[in-house]
Amino acid sequence: MSGHSKWHNIRVKKGAADAKRGKVFTRHAKLIEIVAQRGGDPTMNPSLRTVIDNAKADSVPNANIERAIKKGTGELKGERMEEVVYAGYGHANTALLIECLTDNKNRTLSNLKVALTKNGASFAESSSVLWMFERRGVVAARNEKIKMKNEKLDDDVELGLMDAGAEDIDIDGDTITVTTDMTNWTKVRDYFKQNGFEVQSAGLKYLPTQKAAINDLVTAQKLMHLLEVVEEDDDVSEVHTNADISEEVMGQM
């Protein structure tokens, strides 16, 4: 099974290659802080356990994790962190959903509006864009044995993932990305852990249901630059787009 767009794959690869460690650490800390507001004990707060696991997968130090938990529970003072989703339209009428983790929504909104307008995009009401995306569970895991088998899964692994709730399985090198509905991603994550896979990330993401075609290199490059500028903002957690890059243009990037 495979339903992931090649645009999604190139964005994931580029993000992994270009991500600055400090930005990654900050994002994880903010997520932990927000989730810890509902309880600082990971054994009693499964969502906290998940974000801690994701942070450790990105080598976030334990001291950073513990500090973020204390900020979330109020043991350490500071402005309350919030999750907020903004939207916009980019080149070729592509839709953008921008997830932010911020302690100052006015600052974040102002910075995003400037970044969008200076780079050929426009700000939009989130309701005008959200309908083009759906919230799905996405779990990425790694196992070197897959690469040695020419990027193929054993039948029992594929069946096990399907039994756990996998609706889409995408293999790229030694990495498997599984998409589920909003309720089954934890089952897929646990299956990976129990069967010798290294879970790289797990949680809910916005995936496009309505796509915007991009068939020329210049437009694709402009959109890539826009996304990079937006992602550089310290308050931005993730950026999602419904851009659908043609095979020909992908080969030139």
Jot down its keywords.
single chain, 253 residues, alpha+beta, Alpha-Beta Plaits, four-stranded antiparallel beta sheet, 10 strands, disordered N terminus
How would you describe what is shown here?
- With 253 residues, this protein is an alpha+beta fold.
- The chain has three domains: 6-73, Arc Repressor Mutant, subunit A (Orthogonal Bundle); 82-132 and 211-250, YebC, transcriptional regulation domain (Alpha-Beta Plaits), CATH 3.30.70.980; 133-208, YebC, transcriptional regulation domain (Alpha-Beta Plaits).
- The chain is built from eleven helices and ten strands.
- The strands form three sheets. The protein has a four-stranded antiparallel β-sheet. Strands 5-6-4-7 form a four-stranded antiparallel β-sheet. It has a two-stranded parallel ribbon with strand order 8-10.
- Strand 1 and strand 2 form a beta hairpin.
- The two termini are 26 Å apart.
- Mean pLDDT is 86; it is low at 1-18.
